[in-house]
Amino acid sequence: MDLDATDRRILTVLQKQGRVTNAELSERVNLSPSACHRRVQRLEEEGFIDGFVALLNARKLKRPTTVFVEITLSGQADEVLEAFERAVKLVPDILECHLMAGSADYLLKVVAEDTEDFARIHRQFLARLPGVAQMHSSFALRTVRQTTAIPV
């Protein structure tokens, strides 16, 4: 399915205001409410919309510390990669895990209360991840830009 200009406007609005009512969305993209609803349903069915979430405030939830962890594995065999990825999925403090091309095999985004809490996460989880040969952690000092909106 190809996206037309109206689909793109719908996706742009929904990325920034996921709780917008169908009536308000239809008005903003210049469609009837029923046509707008059908388009949103189609965008969901076609996989352009993965789901709707609430973006939480990490500071309010006492998780203001973001740490990026570069992981180098001991090997590239499928079993090593699969074991690592299975284990990462079980760590609640890891928000993102990316298989990388470059100097590290994986890049993790971890949230913590502070450096002590990160030390706990490191001891309990990160140091026990299978296949890890090397780990390098970098603490974010300040978030300059953060968005979940993909240009459409």
TrEMBL record:
Reply yes or no: does the keyword DNA-binding apply: yes
Keywords (A to Z) from UniProt: DNA-binding, Transcription, Transcription regulation
Coiled-coil spans in chain: none
**Cellular component terms (Gene Ontology):** cytosol
Which SUPFAM superfamilies does the annotation name?
Dimeric alpha+beta barrel, Winged helix' DNA-binding domain
**Highest taxon listed in the record's lineage:** Bacteria
What the entry lists under SMART domains is as follows: HTH_ASNC
> Which GO terms of type biological process are on file?
regulation of DNA-templated transcription; response to amino acid
Q: In the UniProt record, does the keyword Protease occur?
A: no
- Entry GO MF terms: sequence-specific DNA binding
Which parts of the sequence belong to the HTH asnC-type domain?
Answer: 3-77
Q: Which Pfam families match?
A: AsnC_trans_reg (PF01037), HTH_24 (PF13412)
InterPro entries under this entry? ArsR-like_HTH, AsnC-type_HTH_dom, Dimeric_a/b-barrel, Tscrpt_reg_AsnC-like, Tscrpt_reg_AsnC/Lrp_C, Tscrpt_reg_HTH_AsnC-type_CS, WH-like_DNA-bd_sf, WH_DNA-bd_sf
Protein name, UniProt field: Leucine-responsive regulatory protein
Q: What is the lineage of its organism?
A: Bacteria, Pseudomonadati, Pseudomonadota, Alphaproteobacteria, Rhodobacterales
